[in-house]
């Protein structure tokens, strides 16, 4: 009897250790989310903090199906709380720099129309490494991989989902820094500016390729928002809250017209030439 109890005890300990190991090495363990078929759907990249988290909150509160993606869902505590509050929020692992991550998520949602694809994930890069005389070109690759290639990778992977939806919108955040109008006003910040200039070109070219599908691709500058990205830029002037910026951007997305295809627009609706 004692031997049997000892065996059962060892089995219990083993099962617990196995569960802890699997949890630590899994991407994310969560209940499967069933979306309401009559609700609009948004997919947001970089949803674990800043604007991405605020977009997820506001779209969820408005009753949208939300696919909130980030690199490490298991550490995205605020995003997990949001998913617990709203049953139509799915938290998913997707690193925009990873072909396999994007392919896996694209396959999972193969039959899910996506009304708004919101390319929010972005990094500023380390300022000291993109200053004249101290360039670190490995940092340049890192910034481009997220800001430029990442947006194009995700947009291309979910094109069919967007085309199958009612609203058919792809939104990429930022871009003003990549224009002579804004980026040319001051020196430095090379890698961020270069990545956003290439990002504008990529999204504009993608718009030309999908023009006959009814998809609207628009780049929206959210303004100087009080987020970690803005703090990384060294900006110490006035800024607006993530809550206010997200609300203005969502309102603009709702009102997008076909003439805004391939354009760069400020959060207040002003078109920025590039």
Descriptive notes:
The protein is α/β, with parallel strands linked by helices and 274 residues long. It has a single domain, classed as 3-Layer(aba) Sandwich (Rossmann fold). Helices cover 43% and strands 13% of the residues. An eight-stranded mixed β-sheet has the order 3-2-1-4-5-6-7-8, with helices on both faces. Helix 3 links the parallel strand 2 and strand 3. Mean pLDDT is 86; it is low at 18-30.
Written as H for each helix and E for each strand, in order along the chain, the element string is: HEHEHEHEHHEHEHHEE
CATH level 3 topology:
Rossmann fold
Could you tell me the strand content as a percent range?
5-15%
Q: Nearest-angstrom radius of gyration?
A: 21 Å
* Secondary structural class: alpha/beta
Percent range of helical residues? 40-55%
Q: The biggest beta sheet, please?
A: 8 strands, mixed
Write a short abstract of this structure.
The protein is α/β, with parallel strands linked by helices.
Please supply descriptive tags for the structure shown above.
Rossmann fold, 8-stranded mixed beta sheet, 274 residues, alpha/beta
Task: Please render the helix and strand layout as text.
Elements: H1 2-25, E1 41-44, H2 50-61, E2 65-70, H3 77-85, E3 89-93, H4 99-108, E4 116-119, H5 137-157, H6 159-163, E5 169-173, H7 190-209, E6 216-221, H8 228-232, H9 242-254, E7 264-266, E8 271-272
Parallel strand pairs: 1-2, 1-4, 2-3, 4-5, 5-6, 6-7
Antiparallel strand pairs: 7-8
């Amino acid at each position: 009897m004692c031997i049997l109890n000892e065996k059962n005890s060892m089995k219990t300990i083993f099962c617990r250790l196995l569960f802890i190991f699997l949890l630590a090495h899994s991407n994310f363990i969560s209940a499967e989310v069933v979306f309401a078929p009559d609700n609009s759907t948004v997919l947001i990249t970089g949803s674990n903090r800043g604007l991405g988290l605020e977009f997820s909150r506001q779209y969820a509160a408005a009753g949208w199906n939300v696919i909130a993606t980030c690199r490490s869902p298991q550490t995205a505590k605020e995003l997990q709380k949001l998913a617990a509050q709203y049953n139509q929020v799915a938290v998913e692992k997707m690193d925009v720099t990873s072909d396999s991550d994007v392919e896996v998520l694209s396959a999972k949602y193969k039959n899910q129309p996506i009304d708004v694809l919101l390319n929010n994930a972005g990094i500023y890069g380390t300022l000291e490494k993109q200053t004249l005389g101290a360039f670190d070109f490995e940092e340049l690759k890192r910034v481009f991989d997220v800001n430029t290639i990442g947006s194009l990778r995700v947009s291309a992977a979910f094109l069919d989902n967007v085309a199958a939806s009612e609203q058919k919108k792809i939104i990429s955040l930022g871009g003003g820094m990549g224009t002579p109008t804004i980026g040319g006003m001051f020196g430095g910040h090379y890698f961020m500016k270069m990545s956003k200039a290439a990002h504008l070109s990529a999204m504009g070219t993608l718009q030309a390729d999908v023009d006959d599908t009814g998809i609207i691709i628009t780049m929206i500058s959210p303004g100087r928002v009080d987020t970690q990205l803005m703090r990384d830029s060294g900006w110490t002037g006035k800024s607006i809250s993530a809550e206010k910026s997200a609300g203005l951007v969502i309102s603009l997305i709702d009102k997008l017209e076909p003439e805004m295809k391939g354009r760069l627009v400020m959060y207040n609706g002003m078109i920025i030439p590039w």
